Amino acid sequence: MKEYFYKKEYKYMYLSIFLYNFANALSETFGAVMLYKAGLPIHIILLIYGIRFLIMGFITPLYVTISSKIGVAKCILISNIFNIIYTYLVLNTQNLYANIVIFVISMGLNGLSNPSSDALSSKYVESEHRGRFNSLYSISKILGTVMASCLVAWGVISNNTLILFAIITMFFLMQYLVISKIDYKPKRKANVFKASIKYLVHSKSRYKIIYALKTSHIIERNFVPLYLYLVLQDFKAFSVITILSLLFQVVTIILIGEYTDKDIKKSNSLVTLIKASITMVYLFAKDKFIISLNKTVSDNISKVYDTSIQTSIQNIIKESKEDNDLLSSVGQMSLCFTEVIVFSILAILSKFIGEKIFIVIFILSILSTVFINVNIKKSKSSK
Predict the structure, then answer these.
(1) Series of mean pLDDT values for 10-residue runs along the chain (383 residues)
(2) DSSP label at 188?
(3) Residue 81 has what pLDDT?
(4) CB under 8 Å to 104, separation ≥6 — which residues?
(5) Which CATH number belongs to the domain containing residue 21 in this structure?
(6) Is residue 164 one of the residues assigned to a domain?
(7) 283: burial class by Cβ within 10 Å (0-12, 13-18, 19+)?
(8) At a CB cut-off of 8 Å and minimum separation 6, what does 151 contact?
(9) Own/partner pairs for 192-199, CB < 8 Å, 24+ apart?
(10) Residue 29's domain spans which residues?
(11) What does the alpha-carbon distance between residue 199 and residue 201 come to, in Å, rounded to a whole number?
């Protein structure tokens, strides 16, 4: 058990991600559903997410510059202030249309601190503990999301959105206080934005390719809840299945953490095969019960998959000769700009094919799952 708490920084990182995922559950798990309930069509929701990632793509490189001046913790605080604005608007949908520009901008600017997760893990977590650290880190995420999902479901169904907003705001601010305990200022680099763009365009690193391929998984994570909601047409049933699917993830993630530390290559291959197979079920399932069951299994496998793959990504960062904070920013830029392209294409397609767009999303996820593992195998850190 001591490997899970090898350094004091580990416990602060576990607590930080718990607080963040608690506060962010409204956006991560219910975001697309809440926008749909507010009356936005699917193609507009896809377009909003595309604009969000466009803003994130340009703001991400500023993370290193800003954090080198004010520290990582205050960068997270700035991001969370925009998260609070986003939360207020999504909970007050009657003001959403009037404030749509502010809403989209806040969605994008809350990504300023996105590189901090990889940067902190690469800085503090030892390579031989990374699998188990990531497993407990993922469990902390799940516990935060489960508890918050219960709260969000209660707040939305009972229309107690003011209390819900106050609690979410408190958790966003508490995360800043926890990260302050392990705060640091990355070494300042000259013209980080230019360096990030140069690395993104000219480097042959598989790291940026892996992050670009993660695009489909981000889309799946944000829009499968909407798919389930459209199938069930019942917010209560949707909330119950979402919460149950989160609860089932804890045990398997503990097991995969130890297995990952022992054999990262076999772990990646195993979870890749399982995740691709489970996602494929969505293409053929028609029954509500089968789709709901598959959502539960898929969420479970996705977290296991993320734990294994993220361990490899952190190893790539740690073993690279490049600066860790720069690489983390480049990875997020690669992800964000790819998201812009894919979301834009999906938005256009959705205008013509409607809800069949989910078939395209599932196919992209399957292909990405396979090609991520291929690129990890070819990277130096896997050898």
Answers:
(1) 65 91 86 89 93 87 81 90 92 78 89 76 71 79 87 88 93 94 75 72 75 86 91 88 76 58 68 87 89 84 75 70 69 86 95 94 92 78 45
(2) P
(3) 95
(4) 48, 51, 52, 55
(5) 1.20.1250.20
(6) yes
(7) exposed
(8) 25, 164, 167
(9) 192/61, 192/62, 192/64, 192/65, 192/326, 192/329, 193/61, 193/62, 193/65, 195/326, 196/60, 196/61, 196/326, 196/329, 196/330, 196/333, 197/61, 197/333, 199/322, 199/326, 199/330
(10) 7-182+206-382
(11) 6
- Would 69 be classed as within a structural domain? yes
Its pTM stands at: 0.82
pLDDT score for 382? 44
Ramachandran angles phi, psi of 54, nearest 5°: -65, -45
In the prediction, which pLDDT does 149 show? Answer: 87
Number of domains forming the structure of the chain: 1
- Residue for token pair 């850190």: 381
DSSP states of 145-186: HHHHHHHHHHHHHHT-HHHHHHHHHHHHHHHHHHHGGG---P
pLDDT for res 45: 93
126 vs 124: CA distance, rounded Å: 7
What pLDDT does 358 receive? 95
Q: Indicate whether 193 belongs to any domain.
A: no
- CA angle at residue 373 from 62 to 116, to 5 degrees? 20
Residue at 323 is within a domain: yes
Residue 24: helix, strand or coil by DSSP?
A: helix
Q: What is the structure's pLDDT at 2?
A: 55
